[in-house]
From TrEMBL:
The lineage of its organism: Eukaryota, Viridiplantae, Streptophyta, Embryophyta, Tracheophyta. InterPro entries: Apaf_helical, At4g27190-like_LRR, LRR_dom_sf, P-loop_NTPase, Plant_NBS-LRR, WH-like_DNA-bd_sf, WHD_DRP. Residues 116-182 form the Disease resistance protein winged helix domain. It comes from Turnera subulata. This is NB-ARC domain-containing protein. One of its GO terms (biological process) is defense response. SUPFAM superfamilies: L domain-like (SSF52058), P-loop containing nucleoside triphosphate hydrolases (SSF52540). The keyword Calcium does not apply. It comes from the Eukaryota.
Length: 604
């Protein structure tokens, strides 16, 4: 119709949904028993604010007079809402219209697959897209094209109201009733997805034995090891996710039960802190394409992993207890496209960076599309920044605990090759005082890659085309003027850097209007914590067209923010800091202070 504006009609709030339910079910039914009001609230919670579901359930319950009937209805809504009276014809048929309106089978398969996650689960978009890629729902010439396709699919499912936005832009979720429809569709479409959680097996058949015998994809979430039921699987079994559980080992009996002609392609064991080893029998999974052991406590990667020559994705993020990767194991995985081992701040104590576990030459001999690496030596950093193959695939780099790195110089030609670099983190590098960019011909003799020795020659040039997240923590860095060449940064976090005086320094070149418009022009989150010497973010006001949050803590000498009336926009939600710090801020005039006062939120 050429509408000029799309207006989202949101779900009902809890109060609105309850009011609609009570008006529909009628007072006579609610006064029959003292428990009815509480049971009504529980039933409304199961409808998750979907008006059509609230009305349908209320009409069905208006004739039910005993609390026992209502408790049965609650169990039915939780486990099999499609069997609830009226839901199939009045609710599911309408939702099915959205499903059948999807343009192609790829969209429909990707939608059905989302029910492999439990109810109310915040699904990370990249986790979901990686699984879609592993299942070959999405195929492209490289990982980044496939990821873009996955983003497009998520957008299409959200526009069809089959997926919802999560708590942040990186997450999505499914409405419980939509998820139940997806679960039913998975069994009529031969996806046969089975999910087991605290409430038991969730599928579409009454017999758990039938479900286990015919399931093709299965997930376990939040269970103790004793409750993870790994039985004999069919030859067509493809996918196993055991996440956020207390799984301490993969039972050898399970491998014995698994037939060798089984085509398991996805194995996700992430977020199992009790898991300390992978069995050597993993070598039998020769068709495995996706292996995720992130945030487990495995101590060694078994040498038998090298038999997994079909493996395309190996995720090992957060494996802080990992002590050994046998030589030549990674280099034998010649199909590998995605490899990541990133460590996080809480894991920095007594953990080994990637370069102390394997030779980087092993990565270089592969044909990676995506590399996430935590490095801990100047030699490893030098190797990455001088390897065209690794430069091309590096997506996330964390430099940690590198005490012999007083300065980091990165030449401009290197940065142009690092087109996929999205995240840069520097942590606990206690001698690092400067990071700069230089032109290749001006690189100082005998110094590691990096550094601007003459800012004027590089003014206005952009090198970090996709860098979106920058974090510096516990480093004696004095300024970060190199950020003028990274205008697409969305998150900037500087913490516990006691020497930094200014973020963008006075030596950043001419501050013309055009250049100022590019500085932090994509920034959404600015977090400054424990920076006692910090005095300046930038010497002039910036527009910050997308800035949503500023958080300042432990920065007593920061008396000005680079804000003026032109910086006020609808995207800025809050300026978080101590009240004493806010009261001491200096503003260009009273009008500017008044504009931003409504954004201030007191925090510790």
């Amino acid at each position: 119709m050429g509408a000029q504006e799309r207006l989202k009609v949101d779900f009902l709030s809890s109060e609105e949904a309850l009011d609609l339910f009570l008006r529909t079910v009628g007072k006579d039914t609610l006064t029959l028993h003292p428990d009815m009001r509480n049971l009504a609230e529980t039933i409304v919670d199961e409808c998750k604010g979907l008006p059509l579901a609230v009305i349908t359930v209320a009409r069905a319950m208006a004739t039910r007079k005993s609390p026992e009937e209502w408790r049965h209805a609650i169990r039915l809504l939780r486990n099999h809402p499609s069997l609830f009276p009226g839901m199939r014809g009045k609710v599911f048929d309408i939702l099915m219209f959205s499903y059948h309106s999807l343009n192609n089978e790829t969209l429909r398969r990707c939608f059905r697959y989302c029910c492999i996650f439990p109810e109310d689960y915040e699904i990370h978009k990249y986790d979901l897209i990686q699984l879609w890629i592993a299942e070959k729902f999405i195929e492209a010439s490289n990982y980044y094209e496939a990821r873009n396709h996955g983003e497009y699919i998520i957008g299409s499912l959200k526009l069809a109201c089959l997926l919802e936005s999560g708590e942040s832009e990186n997450y999505v979720r499914m409405h419980d009733i939509v998820r139940d429809m997806a679960m039913s569709l998975s069994w009529t479409s031969y996806d046969n997805i089975l999910v087991q959680g605290h409430d038991g097996v969730i599928g579409v058949r009454d017999s758990a034995e039938d479900q286990f015998a015919t399931a093709r994809r299965m997930s376990f979430f939040g269970l103790h090891s004793d409750n993870v039921d790994l039985r004999q699987f069919s030859r067509d079994f493809k996918t196993l996710l055991v996440r956020n559980s207390q799984l301490d080992q993969l039972p050898k009996k399970w491998f014995q039960n698994m037939s060798f002609d089984n085509y398991l392609v996805v194995l996700d064991l992430s977020h199992n802190s009790c898991l300390t080893e992978l069995p050597v029998e993993i070598r039998f999974m020769i068709f495995l394409r996706h292996l995720n052991v992130s945030w487990t406590n495995i101590r060694e990667l078994p040498v038998e992993v090298k038999e997994l020559t079909d493996l395309k994705t190996l995720m090992m993020d957060g494996t802080s207890k990992l002590e050994k990767i046998p030589a030549q194991v990674i280099s034998c995985l010649y199909s590998l496209k995605v490899f990541s081992r990133i460590l996080y701040p809480e894991e920095l104590v007594a953990c080994l960076p990637l370069d102390r576990l394997i030779s980087l030459e092993e990565l270089e001999c592969l044909h990676l599309d995506y590399l996430g690496a935590t490095l801990g030596t100047p030699e490893a950093i030098h190797y990455i920044f001088n390897s065209p193959k690794l430069q091309k695939c590096i997506n996330w780099i964390t430099i940690m605990d590198c005490s012999d790195l007083p300065s980091l110089y990165i030449n401009d030609s290197c940065l142009r090759k690092m087109e996929h670099l999205e995240k840069l983190q520097v942590r606990a590098c206690h001698s690092l005082e400067e990071l700069n960019i230089i032109q290749e011909q001006k690189k100082p003799e005998g110094i590691l890659p990096g550094g601007i020795s003459n800012y004027s020659t590089l003014t206005g040039q952009e090198f970090f085309q996709n860098l979106s997240h920058v974090e510096f923590w516990d480093c004696p860095i004095k300024e970060m003027t190199w950020l003028i060449h990274a205008p697409r940064v969305q998150t900037l976090k500087i913490s516990n850097c006691h020497s930094i005086v200014e973020v963008i320094g006075d030596n950043s070149g001419p501050a013309g209007t055009g250049q100022r418009q590019n500085i932090f022009s994509y920034l959404k989150d600015l977090i400054l914590e424990d920076l006692p010497m910090l005095r300046t973010i930038y010497k002039q006001a910036l527009s910050f067209p997308f800035l949503a949050r500023i958080k300042v803590a432990g920065c007593p000498n920061l008396r000005k923010l680079p804000l003026d009336s032109n910086s006020a926009n609808n995207s800025l939600k809050e300026i978080c800091g101590a009240e004493s710090w806010w009261d001491q801020l200096q503003w260009k005039n009273g009008a500017t202070k008044h504009i931003f006062s409504s954004k201030f939120v007191k925090c510790q």
